[in-house]
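TL;DR need structure tokens for one chain.
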Amino acid sequence: MEKLSNTYRIVEKCRICGGTSLVPYLDLGLIPLVNNYLKSSDLGKEEIKLPLKILYCAQCSLSELSIVVNPEILYRNYFYRSSVSRTFRDHCFAFAEECAKRFNLTKDDLIVDIASNDGCTLKEFKKFGVRVLGVDPAINLAKIANAEGIETLAEFWNEETAKMILNKFGKASIINAMNVFAHVDDLNPFLEGIQILLKDDGVFTIEVPYLLNFINKKEFDTSYHEHLSYFLVRPLTYLFKKYGMEIFDIKKLTIHGGSIRVYIKMEINKTTKVDTDSIKWLLELEKDLGLHTILVYLNFSHNVRRIKDELLAFLKLLKDRGKIIMAYGASAKGTVLLNYCGIGKDYIDYIIDDTPEKQGYFAPGTHIPIVDSSYLKSKKPDYLLLLAWNFAEELIVKTQDYKNSGGRYIIPIPDIMVI
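>> reply
TL;DR here they are.
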């Protein structure tokens, strides 16, 4: 890859297999960085917008972005907080509880969480009496986690970080990388760090959005500049084998529109049983659905354009009828959807978000004001566009008074649905 600037570089070969047969299939145009929320003083300034295009590797079936943005720009100050969502907190507790029982965790076991955010996952592990340590490059989030009793290093994960932890804390029984593995450009130092810190009989887990769901449910708005890779089981199997690792179990999850949790062990660990059936079943399913060939992806891009046209037409119809429309969830996926579809302040008056750090800012690209939920009562919108559609059920419960007063919800993905 040739470095073009301090902002981004162009991908010329697959980050997993090194293949150069990369076929573009989804082009969302120029999209702002999804976590670059704006202050009022920023509104007159030029905003960074970069190409958002996905490529398909014909050799290993990995999907990946055509550019890589400098991670220092993306992650050192981060607005997204995991703990804001009750659904996600419940998800983390269920995962911690499963690990505690399945792997017989004790007070001596060290659990390391990569990209630990505000400590949401580790708070749940701590309930089971284990040692916990977070690693996250966002200085603001590490500060929050440490203040709440979750020791967190404000570092990127790599071999140096792994060695530093090893010297101070010893080897880890579980290393978890939840919703971060897809953000990693150079997987070599990441996985070498795992090799350094993980016990021989330890477990490495990742959670990633599953490309099967991405395609089948038309989840194009979950692609943004942080999400560099879009995984199937096939390229993951190839990848871990290169590092002397082996997938021993995979679970399909509903979180974030459909994800997979992958359990990995070192190949030298012969005591942990491999669930070959779950792995084989998903590999065969991917093949049967055509996800190891390009045609399905090209059809997907046609569906994405249709969603854009239909959503714009529907919102225009509502505005022509004098309806007030607001949105809920100043999320990354919301930024992508609004900017790709060309939905701005002429359609949406405000975006409600429950993250205090986002309130008072303006959404990237569209410059729609981000406000708290009190605006539901004061502005009385007729419709709420649920940008955080992956938490639709939670948001509807949270806004029950709005619903009872006659308010309606628009869910844009996978097809427009009005509730």
